[in-house]
Amino acid sequence: MTNQPVDPALESLLERWRGFRLRGGATDTDELDGPLRTSIATLRDAGLTTDEAFLIAVRRLAATDRSTREFVRTDADRLWPSTAGAQTGAPADRRELWVVLGLAVGAGIAVKAGLVLTGGEADFALNLSVLVLPFLAGYLAWKRQAGPRLLAAAALPFIAVALLLNTFPFAPDGATQILAAIHAPIVLWFVVGLAYVGGDWRSDRRRMDFVRFTGEFAIYFSLLALGGGVLVGLTAGTFTALGVDPEPVLGEWVVPFGAAGAVLVAAWLVETKQNNVVENIAPLLTRVFTPLTSLMLLALLVTLLGRGGVVAADRDLLIMMDLILVLVSGLLLYAISARDPLGPPDLFDRLQLVLVVSALAVDLLMLSAMLGRIAEFGYTPNKVTALGLNVLLLIHLIRAAWLSAAFLRGRGGFDAIERWQTGYLPVYWAWAAVVVAVVPPAFDFG
């Protein structure tokens, strides 16, 4: 074995491994440190990089050491995402690209058919998620080499939602139709998550992986949408200047196929990690927007209290505040997914607690306002849906604040925060399913 100079990157990785084992109560870390270093040195002598040598060495050690096996299971994908992605060869990459492009075309055809077959814009919007998301779930299931059981488990919810949306006798542009159109994509996105985790839906780590996928997907899709919008605008302007009307082609073909295809392409970009920009930007975005969102919530809280008549708040204000609270919950979840789970509490964790407490105070005010409006004007589908969402957010935020405070005081681990966040996600799925399947008939589809 060739003597290796001190490598700060290697020492940082070893410190993560040591810290994880010590927090888990392992007492033989020092005894395993030497053999692990020897294995790493041998692999580096063979030409592997530090990250690759460490990854392979700890995986070998995991075969005989339970604590190291847990370390690999919990933290490997976060420490070495580029190493995992580097294992895919060029032919496989090209094959995957052709699969993605084929599914993108299929999604475009489904959207185009939906535009033709549905009775109007409202019916098309109602079915949009059913038309596109099955192709995304299909791509992820293919990527995970899903078996027949997982494919059936993913297909059944799509079929059930499609049947409900197209057999319920919704009143045209009624409240329950709009609620179903909003919540159906939420229900089906969780089905996409089932395909993403490869059926391992009980794993907190895999659920958090899907949270990160969702955030990165949103970033990529937004970038594609902005770029596509600019391209379509320039194309339309150029053809118009030439005296040619581009609307029949752009509006009826390019935009439907482009928008549907962007869903598949964005997912492919996240999966293949061809560009590591998101991996660097995502944690930065959370650190920028967390304090800004906290300031916004505090300003809203002061303004609401200054008005004195929170119970008399109008419907538009309540809707906007609910949207803000959902955004805050998503930001909190994504920030947790981007954090190093083995790191000690820092200033950013304190800022997150401020964000949670501020959102909790605003949610309590919104609940009081909603209850006041229900007492004065009675129940409606929108009020019931909003009330249920706010109750769920209240429970979510209270527990999140409690666990975050315990972590900052050194009385709890960060893993408890992760488990709560990922474990609570199915509750939102269940409520979205209730809004799609139960609320419309409860209010006579009005």
Q: Which series of helices and strands comes N to C? A: HHHHHHHHHHHHHHHHH
CA-based shape: globular
Radius of gyration from the alpha-carbon trace, in angstroms:
25 Å
Number of helices: 17
Main sheet?
none
Q: Count the strands? A: 0
Helix content: over 70%
List the uncertain runs: 81-89, 274-278
Q: What is the average per-residue confidence, as pLDDT, rounded to a whole number? A: 83
Measured by DSSP, the beta-strand proportion falls in: under 5%
> How many independent structural domains?
3
The chain-level structural class is: mainly alpha
- Report how far the terminal alpha carbons are from each other: 76 Å
Question: What do you see in this structure?
Answer:
Keywords: Membrane, Transmembrane, Transmembrane helix. It comes from Skermania pinensis. This is DUF4153 domain-containing protein. It is a single chain. The chain has 446 residues and is an all-alpha fold. The protein has three domains: 78 residues, no CATH class; 183 residues, no CATH class; 136 residues, no CATH class. Helices cover 82% and strands 0% of the residues. Helix 12 crosses helix 14 and helix 13 runs parallel beside helix 15. It is globular and about 70 Å long. The N and C termini lie far apart (76 Å). About 3% of the residues have low confidence.
